[in-house]
């Protein structure tokens, strides 16, 4: 299968402090890959470097077969979209849902906005009645669905998910995780998901890299994690601190 994302010896430094150290991994087309670790482990820093939001890195990054540098092309931003942790913070408070969804279409010169907006809202199970509402008029789950619809509307191949459910109520987290799972299958998307909760990441991702102090300490499958085939003491400790991994679908399967 084709490799959609290839990262080799990625280093990220801030004012002399090395936040990410020699990180390497690859993600195949259609796969969901998780980066897990405690706060300060470097997982979100890796994601922001991949997204083109942080230029203080060196190493090799290849996305969809293209070598990427610090500056990214418009084609990159059409192929790769990011969904942030806080849906309220990532949406402009004075823009309606309609405006938020129109904006990426205008940036990429995509026509037929009306039908694309309708399709995007349908894909994330948002009722058309919210199309002209503002973020403060929506629930947290609805706001995150808008953020996902905005990320999807220009037809990307890759979604970078920065703890996409951690700001939501527990009852809503499972809905959004299952939505993301369904969208990946139906649209053939490739995901990288960053999170601190192993159970949530294992629910969505087949392969997981565990980070500590800017380094990957272990790579394993979600199945290995559930069946306790773990090599690192740090991964073992994270597993004990997380939600029910024995039955990840307890957080909300169909």
Polypeptide structure, described:
The strands form 2 sheets. Strands 6-7-8-3-9-10 form a 6-stranded mixed sheet, with helices on both faces. The protein is an alpha/beta fold. The protein has helices at residues 43-50, 74-79, 87-90, 97-107, 113-123, 140-152, 170-187, 198-204, 222-226, 233-241; strands spanning 3-14, 17-28, 32-36, 57-63, 66-67, 80-83, 158-162, 190-195, 207-212, 215-221. Strand 1 (3-14) and strand 2 form a beta hairpin. The protein has a single domain (3-89, 156-251), classed as Rossmann fold (3-Layer(aba) Sandwich). The chain is 36% helix and 26% strand. Helix 4 (97-107) runs parallel beside helix 6 and helix 6 runs parallel beside helix 7 (170-187). Residues 248-254 have low confidence and may be disordered.
């Amino acid at each position: 299968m084709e490799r959609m994302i290839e990262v080799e010896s990625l280093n990220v430094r801030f004012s002399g402090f090395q936040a990410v150290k020699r990180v390497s991994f690859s993600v195949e087309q259609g796969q969901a890959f998780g980066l897990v670790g405690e706060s300060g482990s470097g997982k979100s820093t890796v994601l922001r470097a991949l997204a083109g939001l942080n230029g203080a890195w060196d190493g090799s990054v290849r996305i969809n077969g293209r070598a990427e540098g610090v500056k990214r092309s418009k084609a990159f931003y059409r192929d790769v979209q990011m969904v942030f942790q806080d849906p309220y913070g990532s949406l402009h408070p004075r823009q309606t849902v309609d405006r938020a969804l129109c904006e990426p279409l205008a940036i990429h010169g995509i026509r037929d906005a009306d039908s694309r907006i309708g399709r995007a809202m349908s894909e994330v199970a948002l009722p058309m009645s919210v199309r002209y509402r503002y973020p403060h008029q929506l629930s947290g789950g609805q706001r995150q669905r808008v953020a996902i619809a905005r990320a999807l509307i220009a037809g990307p191949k890759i979604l970078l998910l920065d703890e996409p459910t951690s700001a939501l109520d527990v009852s809503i987290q499972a809905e959004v995780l299952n939505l993301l799972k369904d969208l990946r299958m139906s649209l053939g998307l490739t995901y990288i998901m960053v999170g601190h909760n192993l159970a949530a990441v294992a629910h969505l991702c087949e392969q997981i890299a565990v980070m500590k102090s800017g380094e990957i300490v272990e790579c394993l499958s979600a199945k290995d994690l559930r069946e306790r085939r773990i090599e690192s003491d740090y991964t073992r400790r994270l597993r004990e601190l997380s939600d029910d991994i024995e039955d990840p679908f307890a957080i909300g399967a169909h």
